[in-house]
Structure formats: C-alpha cells, structure tokens
C-alpha cells in the first residue's frame, strides 16, 4: 500500500491509454510522455503498459507501507527517499515506512513514478488512466491509499542498463505531418508555420496546448470530423491549438497539421513560455 501524504499539483495514475472507445466519445487519455513512462517501467522490468503515477511540475509526498522497488523517469523534480536525494532513471528499493518526496524543479514538466507490478487502481474500459467522468476520480488526493504488490526480493539489475534519450527534453523541434486541411492554407501561411518559433501559452494541460503567436486565418470551419492526440487545429481567430492525450474525439476547426507520436512526448515536457518549432516530415 502507498499512502498519499501530499497530492502535488496535478498527480494521476495513467497507463498507455484507453483504445477502442473513441466512437463513443471517450478520449484516449494515457501518459502524456509515453517515452518517459515506458522507460520507468522497462527499467523496473514491468510491461510498458503498466500503470504509473504521472506527476506534473510539483510532486507528491508518498508513504510506502510495504517493500517494493521504484523508478522515476521524465522531468527532474529533485526526488528524495527519506529526505535523501535519489537519481532519476535508476531502480531503487523501497522499504515499508519509507517516504518518497519531491523538491525543486530542475528540468522538464512531467515525471513518472513506476513501482514493481504497477498501481492497482480502478480499471475502466481496459485502462487504469484517470479521466473525469470515466474513472471515479480524475486525480489523486491527500490521504488516498493506493494498492501495489509487495515484494521482498532484490531488484534484478538486468533491466537497468537502458540508454536514456536526453535530446527528448532539450530539443525544440516537433516533427509534424500535413493535416487534412493543410492544403487549404495559402503558400505564405504554410511557409510561416515552419519558418518561425512558437511560444507555449499559459493555456496548456492534458487536453490541449495553445500557442501564443497567431496565424492569419480565412479558412471556414469544417464539418465536425475526427481528431486525435497531436492534431493541430486552427481557430477562426488564428489561434493554433495542439490537442493532447485527453482531447475530444471530434472537432470543427481545420486540422492543419498532425504531430508525430514522439513529438507529443516532447511537447508534454514543455510548459508556459517555452519555445518550439514545427518541422514538416514528408
């Protein structure tokens, strides 16, 4: 069992997502940064789809009431075990009574805490991913207790030699494909999309990231059509909106671009004021 002594800014349980229910309007959800979450699981010897704790910007304080192993990957939020700093991307044994906490933000925006065997939270539509209206709760709260598997065996270090891609957190380049309405843009509009840097607006969350710089727009709204994580929509006012893991399943704004899966992971580690650049993938 793990007790949440402090919930943090926005902490949830997620796996790789909820697939096969989009026709009913159910979002994919799942971890924002699938790369980092998968690394945390792989380093522990878990399946990549094992449920992990997604921690945003400011971390929780957790009391472990059984023996297990943990691994933290993604953003560096100065994790500590019993007030002693611990390394990220490194499997660590935890004993009953140990306290895991987080401190100063160093880099990135979201980190992932995996435990051996994963978190045994509510499973809805074949996924543990928390989402308002699908699971009983949308995020973790203070004094909540989470079920995990207790283990007394030593960690098998054969999983602990995976090279981490550090450029994943440093790059500003997001690779994209042309969206269904891309060719309706003028040549000048198309060129502008790839010639300037864009700034992430304060409106950024698990549903979507907005960009500050507008793109002059004369396109008409489209018939409500399918969208998915990574779709870049262009609003009538010229606002660019990048849909993320909790996005709706349909939309009526022109879909001018589509992020590669890896680019969604990269974007999820950016936050307000960060700069990005879009690069067309042919």
Automatic annotation (TrEMBL):
Database matches in Gene3D superfamilies: Cyclophilin-like
InterPro entries in alphabetical order: CT_A_B (IPR003778), Cyclophilin-like_dom_sf (IPR029000), PxpC (IPR052708)
Entry keywords, A to Z: ATP-binding, Hydrolase, Nucleotide-binding
Pfam family, one: CT_A_B
Highest taxon, organism lineage: Bacteria
UniProt domain Carboxyltransferase: residue ranges: 23-282
Protein name per its UniProtKB record: Biotin-dependent carboxyltransferase family protein
Native source organism of the sequence: Flavivirga aquimarina
């Amino acid at each position: 069992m793990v007790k949440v002594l402090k919930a943090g800014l926005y902490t949830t349980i997620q796996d790789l997502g909820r697939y096969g229910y989009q026709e009913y309007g159910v979002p994919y959800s799942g971890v924002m940064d699938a790369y980092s979450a998968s690394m945390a699981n792989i380093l522990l010897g878990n399946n990549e789809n094992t449920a992990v704790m997604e921690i945003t910007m400011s971390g929780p304080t957790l009391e472990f009431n059984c023996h297990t192993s943990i691994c933290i990957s993604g953003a560096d939020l100065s994790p500590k075990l019993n007030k002693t700093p611990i390394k990220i991307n490194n499997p660590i044994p935890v004993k009953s009574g140990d306290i895991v906490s987080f401190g100063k933000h160093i880099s990135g925006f979201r980190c992932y805490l995996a435990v051996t065997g994963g978190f045994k939270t509510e499973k809805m539509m074949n996924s543990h991913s928390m989402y308002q209206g699908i699971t009983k709760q949308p995020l973790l709260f203070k004094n909540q207790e989470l079920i995990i598997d207790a283990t007394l065996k030593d960690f098998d270090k054969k999983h602990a030699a995976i090279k981490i891609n550090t450029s994943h957190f440093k790059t500003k380049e997001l690779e994209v494909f042309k969206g269904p309405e891309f060719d309706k843009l003028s040549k000048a509009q198309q060129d502008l999309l790839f010639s300037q840097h864009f700034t992430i607006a304060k409106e950024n969350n698990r549903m979507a990231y907005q960009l500050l710089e507008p793109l002059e727009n004369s396109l008409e709204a489209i018939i409500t059509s399918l969208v998915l994580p990574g779709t870049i929509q262009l609003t009538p006012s010229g606002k660019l909106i990048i849909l993320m893991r909790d996005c709706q399943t349909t939309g009526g704004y022109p879909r001018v671009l589509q992020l590669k899966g890896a680019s969604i992971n990269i974007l999820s580690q950016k936050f307000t004021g960060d700069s990005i650049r879009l690069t067309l993938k042919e």
